[in-house]
Please model this.
Amino acid sequence: MKIHYVKVFYPGLLFPEDSLVRVDREDSEFRLPDGAFAFQRGWREEVSQGGEVLVGELHLDKTIWYRHGKVYTQKEALVKWGSNSIAVSNIRINKYERVVDTGRGVFPLCEEDVVLEG
Model:
């Protein structure tokens, strides 16, 4: 059976922490828990066999949905944080075209990612 999940991202020390939340359907409305800044939808197969549940590999959608955030290009980030900031150095070194500042960190923004309003 195909089981749907939402991967929830929380601020971490060096990298985001995450947890999986099971949802009823792929298109289930989802409210981010307090403290979370983003989520990603996914699914995996689960099969009951001989009283045991076999769990398949988690397949995540490419899109990450960010709660609130300001999107910056490389040039805008340079103006905002200055050339000596760690964020700008990471943007330049990793060749990120756009980033999102969620207030809980600055993350690369891929073409398919979405920043939610309000």
In short: Strands lie at 2-10, 17-23, 38-49, 52-55, 59-60, 65-67, 70-73, 98-101, 106-108, 114-116. The chain has two helices and ten strands. The radius of gyration is 17 Å. Residues 74-81 form the longest helix (8 residues).
